[in-house]
Amino acid sequence: MAFRQCLRAAAAAGLLLLVAAKARAQMCSAGLYVAVTAPRDGEGNVPTNAVVAIRVAGDPIPAGIENQFGLRLAPSGGTVPALAIRLTHAASYIAPIRLTPPCCLFAQQVYEVVRTVSGSTVVLATFTTGSGQDFSTSGPPPPSGASATVDTFDLHPDGGSDCVRDRIRRVRLTLPDAGQPVLYSIQENGQTLSPDEPSPVGIFDCSGQPQWTGDVSWVVTPGQHTIQLSAVSRTARTSSPVDVSFNASCTATSNDGGNPGQGGTGEGGGRPAEPTNGCSCQNGTAAALALGALGLILRARSKRSKS
What we know:
This protein is α+β, with helices and mostly antiparallel strands and 307 residues long.
């Protein structure tokens, strides 16, 4: 019986590895993860004074990577001047990039966010501007009332293998409606975990050894956490921060509800490190399941970003 369970786990591991490889192939370019986090691909009614948020991840990230990105009008392809800067991030393998036009974009026009490498230009996302600027000076409202939950992360269809459940945890933030399109800035202990986070799910591995595996959201390690969340508008104005606390417990039987904070809505996702020894089947199976689980999440995020 135990042998059959291990065979089923190994088969599932092989399938999930294929999914993970496919997801990474879809989302990476030249060894880098590159994504436009705001405005969303296809978004309309974007303020004419909006800024563009781009996230790059990889190890290593080439110096001057921010200079590869730009804006242009569609369908003419006319270049739009924009200042490109690389923002601060706690992880050396994540590079948030912001494109800021010198004044404002044309109203009710289609724009393309592009990346140019060795003379070849690729369109990353398109968006359409609205009728005018966002003149707000106070930023969006604080994301008050958010809470965090921590649960196990088990993709095994029949509960046979506990490799994923024992190694991987998921932090899910429940967020209030911001009333406008926003991203979220996530900080902890003075370090920026993400200045441009669009997702509410964070993932971490109980080994507590983060490493680059293709996911690019905020890093979580086991233990007690209090993160500071701020909502960020399309024009890069930021709300006051609020705290959200949770315990990233790694007890195998834990289903920790976390501690509700005053916090906001944010979307996080840490990277699971390579699982260590201790699974019920082969250690290689544990590693495959963890990577496969990550692949499924990345594929789901990719689909959501295109919808």
